[in-house]
Specification:
single chain; mainly alpha; flat; 183 residues
Length: 183
Amino acid sequence: MVDFPSKVTTETSSPQPQQGASRLRGLASSATSRMDESFLRSVPAALMAAETVLGLLHWALIAGAPYWHFPAYGWVMFVAVALWILTVLLFLVLLFSVPQRLSAVPWTMTVMMYNGVAALLYLTAFLTNAATVWMFSASFHGHIGAAAFFGAALTLLYGAGAYVSYLDWRANGGDAATSTVPT
């Protein structure tokens, strides 16, 4: 016990930055450096942003009504939620430049086909929705009628997205094989 004070050191050092915080800063800077800011200013991005907002409104309006009492609305809800999730994922894929890293996928054709299929699916969901508004009680006619309107708007937006994607596909040669086979 007598030599205890001689074994104690009282050196101070400057605080080191926390390792976790520097990792997060590095992750944030690398994520923003990989973001394709030119995509955000493009027509496809504007269409996808509109599809995301209107799609959320569409399925929220349907979810606010007792849709489960009518089997046809299971299809409408499936289309609305599934395409909303897929559109958000596709937006993020395009925003973070994944097509540049996965060049083996014919992205212009993939996006064109996605938009075309989504337009057809939303057309069926809109027609189902519009044809069955009368089945709901009067208190839900507003919800379901508004959902039908947003379904029609989304059909047009996905159709416009398919057309813009088609123009982009044609501008890239219109052939998936030319963009996937190394030369």
